[in-house]
## 1
Amino acid sequence: MKVYRAQEIIQAEEKINVELNGVSVWIDSVDPEQELAKVHVEDRPADTRVVPVGELQEVQ
């Protein structure tokens, strides 16, 4: 995924499905300069991690 798309997903009105290594996640924030995203597992908000935006995949 590209940084601009991750930022669009954060701002979207509708839910857009995103996965990290096959696990459904929510994007909490994006650092465009470092190309990193803070994400959490969909059903576990406390399970957060910072990952390269390129590792995220939008699920159609």
## 2
Amino acid sequence: MLKMEVIDSKISKGKTLRPAYYRNEDLKKIFGLSNNTIIKYRQTGVIPYTKLGDILLYDSVKIEEIFSTNIGT
């Protein structure tokens, strides 16, 4: 529950300055995810992503919706 509150507060703070897309480093900093967790979530379809060359991009609105509704389940 504490982790969910931390993520929720970070989402709330970033609403005005939220980028359109997150990168892997953003997911690690904002949501506390590890590289392995990000890879697992991509491979299993938990988080949607777009690949642009070698860069992986995650729609910030969709990611925030996913984590705000699914953390703790």
## 3
Amino acid sequence: MKPRKARNPMLVFRFMFKSKLLVLLLILCFLDALFTDIGLQLALIQEANPFIRHLYEWHIIAYYLVKLIFPLALMLIYPYIRQKLWVQPCLTLTVIVYAAVNVYHFVWLSYGLTYVAGSA
């Protein structure tokens, strides 16, 4: 049996950003975290997830790290799993769901800011 050749970490890092869907997912996850942060800061919403709420109240950097760790982890393993048949449909579905979540955030944030500005 031939020994497996180790992959160059820089090649893996460069490949992480070749997938437009993965980059889009990372951006959408960041926007989700940012919109939630803005909504919480302005008291327009409350965080429903108790774990995320605890993180947010504990430290804002921990909140953002946890919100971004999963898309970053997926970006790291993607070069190794991209050939599997289920990966691309699941990635596409995840991007669609996060896009819908961000549209929802944008709507309530726009409504909330309009309401706050109108009552001032």
